[in-house]
């Protein structure tokens, strides 16, 4: 079966050209994959991509972080992210969508065109490197804000499913983000969710996880409400950037040439920019939500994850 | 005026001996300070502390993380943390209390014995190193969970007051933790608080701060609800530990001796264990909440902050 990946060229902070270069990398590295590109026709057709391996989903408009995603929905001009998601819902060959645009718009579009089950809201997971050398699936990372305990239980199931598929884990360990490891710790939502997860069938619940242990490898799936999950994701990234910057500064002021080598190593090990693409769960087709600042390599890595899931391979080899 | 600091010896993960050694450091370094020690009489009297500079608040019982703090309140035996707080409320000479015990018990005791204003709940702030070389006051760090927008506005005032006192900042910049920098981003609580802070008198509100910018020095006071603040605090710490551990591992596997030097530098720069004591705000006397795992040096540093506030000095000199 032909595999097609849809890439939304608009909405990225780096501009459509960087997304287009990402598409070029995908075509170069995966000879059995085709792409459908949502964006301005002239730009796409002028890029010199290999004939017969791409098609154009013409759209000149995007949704910025200052726009209201719902209003954009009723725009007369075609919006690239909606065009991409609508097409994904229609074509059997499509294995997934990649976008670096506004999360709210992606979310609204996914609900409209790709919802697997009308009773549940989608969520966005991130696969993050942990200090055991493995990966932890953080869900939700900021798409589902102000949700209730039943939704968090749902996140636990979807995160477990993803980790089963991606890493062939038989029974992924599920942790619940809290402000203390003890079962009595937590806000109202966490306490209620804890009680539900403890008795939920099909979930290997290992208890509460404290904020300083999120990436310690104590669990394979870390469940949290979107606002808190967003803090974990962005804080971990911000702190990694802070420390790496300090190392580089130290190297300069102390004439320590090894600082650059060590900073480089950490950047490859904790490369949130290329690893941190979000994976939307609960949709009929996989949707990869890349950061607004994502590079061409991040587009390629997102395609690799889509392809591995479609091919039913683990992603250990490709990311390690 | 005589300055006395009360130290709760029990409840720390490191045992009462480490807290006692902290008290010894305080007495050695600050000749004009006396201490009152809450704990077992035999232990305190056998420690060989300088005569006339300490007194005993006898108490053999503590509150563990598994106890219910409210039940402990009605215990027949004296509990060290309650004894410490009660004494602080009674004696004019006391400039503050230091404890590394259960936060819930400390909170309950502070409400009972030290509340400045019956209409507000206390909160716990942390002073964290930011990447501009300065400090950011994070408030609340986990004491006030599930609170409303009016409480967050209150945290903004108390954090601003503290930063005015500690660093002589005229108009501390107040940021609001959110899942995006735009004013439209946030959960319900953050959106409501944003609207209030924008028009609040006496608050220099600089807008929403994203999770990857918490310690970037964009604000002097970072306001958040306790659950989210706890994530920021512990995540930053956990991530710093992860990266430092990676550097040490790298040094060993790659025979790079400079790795140890760089790890040591980062440990001094991002030393959460000694810097990260929480400061309870909204009480008649200052209460320093140290980590359960706090070292004797952390006790000394907490005393330094109490002393500087009492002496009306900034803490720049002492922490830098």
How does this structure look, described?
The structure is a homodimer of 320-residue chains. Chain A is α/β, with parallel strands linked by helices and 320 residues long. Helix content of chain A is 44%, strand content 19%. Chain A is built from twelve helices and eleven strands. The first copy, chain A, has helices spanning 16-29, 41-45, 69-73, 80-90, 103-114, 149-167, 188-199, 226-253, 258-269, 272-275, 296-311, 316-319, and strands at residues 3-8, 33-39, 54-58, 94-99, 123-129, 135-139, 173-178, 204-210, 221-223, 278-281, 286-289. In chain A, α1 (16-29) packs across α11, α4 (80-90) packs parallel to α5 (103-114) and α8 packs antiparallel against α9. The longest helix of chain A has 28 residues, at 226-253. Mean pLDDT of chain A is 90; it is low at 316-320. The interface between A and B is large, with 53 and 53 residues.
């Amino acid at each position: 079966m032909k595999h097609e990946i849809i890439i939304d060229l608009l909405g990225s902070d780096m501009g459509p050209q960087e997304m287009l270069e990402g598409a070029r990398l995908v075509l170069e590295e995966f000879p059995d994959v085709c792409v459908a590109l949502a964006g301005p026709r002239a730009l796409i057709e002028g890029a010199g991509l290999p004939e017969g391996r791409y098609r154009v989903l013409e759209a000149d408009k995007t949704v910025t972080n200052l726009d209201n995603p719902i209003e954009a929905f009723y725009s007369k001009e075609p919006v690239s992210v909606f065009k991409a998601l609508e097409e994904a819902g229609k074509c059997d060959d499509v294995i997934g969508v990649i976008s670096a645009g506004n999360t709210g718009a992606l979310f609204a579009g996914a609900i409209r065109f790709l919802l697997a089950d009308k009773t549940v809201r989608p969520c966005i997971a991130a696969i993050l490197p942990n200090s055991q050398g493995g990966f932890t699936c953080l869900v939700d990372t900021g798409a589902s804000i102000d949700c209730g305990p039943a939704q968090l239980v749902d996140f636990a199931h979807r995160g477990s499913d993803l980790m089963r598929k991606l890493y062939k884990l038989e029974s992924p360990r599920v942790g619940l983000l809290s402000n203390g490891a003890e079962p009595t710790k937590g806000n109202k939502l966490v306490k209620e969710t804890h009680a539900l997860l403890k008795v939920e069938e099909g979930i290997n619940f290992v208890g509460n996880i404290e904020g300083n242990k999120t990436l310690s490898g104590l669990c394979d799936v870390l469940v949290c409400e979107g606002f808190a999950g967003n803090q974990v994701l962005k804080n971990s990234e911000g702190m990694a950037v802070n420390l790496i910057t300090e190392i580089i500064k130290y190297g300069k002021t102390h004439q320590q040439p090894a600082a650059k080598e060590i900073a480089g190593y950490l950047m490859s090990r904790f490369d949130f920019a290329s690893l941190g693409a979000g994976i939307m769960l609960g949709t009929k087709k996989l949707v990869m939500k890349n950061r607004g600042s994502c590079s061409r390599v991040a587009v390629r890595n997102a395609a690799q994850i889509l392809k591995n899931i479609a091919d039913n391979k683990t992603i250990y080899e490709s990311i390690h």
